[in-house]
Design goal:
The longest helix is centred in the middle third of the chain and has 14 residues. The chain is extended, with a radius of gyration of 17 Å. The protein is of the alpha+beta class and about 70 residues long. Helices cover about 35% and strands about 15% of the residues.
Length: about 70
């Protein structure tokens, strides 16, 4: 099970203020059932973060291209 929390100012999302609508922080908590010790679990999390395309795309700037294609 994974809990995800995010913080943002909805004024930016709804265009009520000229501020960014992006999240200002994200917290992930992984609930695991395991016999592994805390050090091993942390090593697994560290490896998963360093190898995850999604984690790295969110935490490091990436180029984004948007286009419209008529159907």
């Amino acid at each position: 099970e994974v809990d995800m929390e995010g913080e943002n100012d909805l004024n930016g999302f709804f265009g009520l203020k000229p501020i960014s609508p992006k999240l200002s922080g994200v917290k992930l908590t992984f609930h695991v059932e395991s016999d592994a010790d805390s050090k091993t679990l942390q090593e697994i999390l560290d490896a998963a973060q360093s190898l995850s395309p999604i984690f790295n795309s969110v935490t490091e700037p990436v180029g984004v291209e948007a286009a419209i294609a008529k159907a």
